[in-house]
């Protein structure tokens, strides 16, 4: 099969993350605005063209003060770096609809290679006859690798914000 264009369905997709807070709990959040270019044969992603863009100002951790701090120069600095992008450079099949997706992640003006685990969840037609596909994406990155180093020491030792950010995407896309 040849690669087909797919359009992200933002109502049935999510870009979520979690990070350690005070070294004892996880804070979770999501980005509400994102877009992707997907040209793929869902049955074999190894030849896919995938580009993903996240609007960092759309961060939502269910706390307005924290969200505004994350948008500030201490963290994302959305005035100067409004988006996070990922462009696939290599996709390797691990069998059983599982893939390693490697690409160039650009965040806060820094580009680094990152690898994420992708699972093709399947395909089907919605009640209106539109062909849909689903994927899950899991991985992590170190925020310090991207110059995101703001932190605060805790009285009991350790730091307020962890360095490892876990990333989870649920993607549903429609044949364009």
TrEMBL record:
Task: Give the top-rank taxon of the lineage listed in the UniProt record for this protein.
Answer: Bacteria
**Domain Lipid/polyisoprenoid-binding YceI-like residues, every copy:** 5-174
Q: Which SUPFAM superfamilies match?
A: YceI-like
The protein's matches in SMART domains, at most eight in alphabetical order, are given as: YceI
Q: Which PANTHER family match?
A: PROTEIN YCEI
| Family, similarity comment | Belongs to the UPF0312 family.
Q: What is this protein called?
A: YceI family protein
